[in-house]
Design goal:
This protein is mainly alpha-helical and 430 residues long. Helices cover 69% and strands 3% of the residues.
């Protein structure tokens, strides 16, 4: 995850998309027995249809998957399947069968899983280089593990209230794509081999399950429209949504109009974009995703104060919706209101010390007002939360030399340095 967050340009650092994915993921995890750890769901900008799970509860999805899923239940079925790989400890069980694997080769295999996200030859080469080829010929799970993830994922999907037919329809569409493009199968099938037997097993389970319709959430539709509006050139995106609306070929008119407004914002046609969003605000009752687009339009058009005021009202209405809080703080920083920002962040980092974005904002505002020690201290926590402990130690050393700290602050820095150095020594002993 450190490699992905820090170095992978395809990692999508979008708070509202992450909020949706994690909200959907949490709903599934809550219905999954054995899900005792913390999960993090994240998005990778990649047009291929794929998703992957890693030890530690990290579940990644490609933008191609979200755009290919025709219903929210289809998307949920893939996430439920990936969650089940984690809850059933499939990767750990694979490692357990290969007692000769060293820590280096295990790390190599995990990196190869990431490299093979798109089903590329590079991923296959990385797997061979890791000397862990005996684990899986194509970085996929065994058929037994796939069937188990299907069975457990099906139960999770059902208990979470989604339409279990979504799992069947998604797999059937992938299978059709395989027949049509035999030499260019969807990436998901390269790491998750799909057989007719598996589809038949899921179909049998569906037949014994009472039908339960699940209406797609507006968040599902809006997030997909946002991702689609960011594809291609701004004019291509605009033409796509204009055609959808003209031909009435959409599953949600609200989402199509959101995509149109987002495309117009990319084109810098702020007047028309604002008119579309103002209409959407009335229709959706100031939905958070729509409100955030309105803020971006105001900011892009030079009305940062207007964007800040919108964000201020949004935070008051929905204080627990994190993307609103991020936006409000960022607009305040853009207006130079750093003392107010730091006052808010003091409480936020105390109540939620795992949010690296809050610490990053702290570092920015401290830098803006010339507080060197505090800036480096906050940046150290950003690196620590990202898993980059040596970089965190370096920041604390810079804080020691900043020359603007009092005795108590320096003592706190010394104590934190000892903690992190102890962690480094512990890692070396493992």
């Amino acid at each position: 995850m450190r490699e992905i967050r820090a170095k992978d340009p395809s990692y999508v650092d979008d708070p509202e998309v992450a909020e949706y994915l994690n909200s959907l993921g949490r709903k599934l995890v809550a219905s999954s027995s054995g899900a005792s750890q913390r999960y993090e769901f994240f998005l990778i900008k990649d047009d291929t249809i794929n998703a992957f799970a890693m030890p530690g509860g990290f579940v990644g999805a490609h933008t191609g998957l979200l755009l290919a899923a025709q219903t929210e239940s289809e998307l949920a079925s893939v996430l439920a399947h990936e969650i089940s790989h984690v809850t059933q400890h499939h990767i750990a069980r694979l490692f357990g069968k290969q007692s000769q694997l060293s820590a280096v080769s295990i790390a190599g295999l995990l990196l190869a899983i990431l490299a093979a996200r798109s089903g590329s030859a590079a991923g296959q080469a990385a797997m061979v280089a890791s000397q862990a080829g005996a684990v899986q010929a194509q970085l996929g799970y065994s058929r037994d593990f796939e069937r188990e993830a299907d069975r457990v994922g099906f139960q999770v999907l059902q208990q979470a209230g989604f339409d279990v037919n979504g799992m069947v329809s998604f797999f059937e569409r992938l299978q059709r794509a395989t027949r049509i493009h035999e030499n260019n199968a969807p990436a998901y099938l390269l790491s998750h081999p799909l057989t007719g037997e598996r589809i038949a097993d899921i179909q049998n389970r569906v037949q014994g399950t009472p039908y339960k319709q699940h209406a797609d959430s507006i968040e599902f539709q809006l997030v997909r429209a946002k991702l689609r509006s960011q594809q291609g050139t701004p004019r291509e995106a605009l033409a796509f949504f204009e055609e959808q609306l003209r031909e009435k070929r959409y599953s949600s008119e609200v989402a199509a109009r959101y995509g149109l407004a987002s495309s117009l914002e990319r084109l810098k046609d702020y007047k028309r974009a604002s008119a579309e969003v103002e209409h959407l605000r009335t229709v959706t009752g100031q939905h958070p995703v729509v409100e955030l687009l309105y803020m971006r339009i105001k900011e892009s058009s030079g009305d940062v104060k207007g964007a800040r005021d919108l964000a201020s009202g949004a935070v008051k209405r929905q204080p627990s919706y994190r993307p609103f809080r991020y936006a409000y703080l960022q607009f305040q920083q853009a207006l130079g209101q750093h003392q107010d920002v730091l006052s808010q962040l003091e409480e936020l980092v105390r109540t939620d010390p795992r949010d690296s974005r809050f610490y990053s904002m702290q570092a920015q505002s401290y830098a803006a007002i010339g507080r060197g020690l505090s800036r480096h201290r906050a940046q150290a926590e950003v690196y620590f939360l990202q898993g980059a402990i040596p970089a965190a130690i370096e920041q604390l050393q810079l804080a020691q030399r900043a020359g603007d700290g009092d005795f108590y602050q320096l003592a706190s820095i010394d104590a934190r340095l000892k903690e992190l150095r102890a962690l480094v020594e512990e890692e070396k002993r493992r």
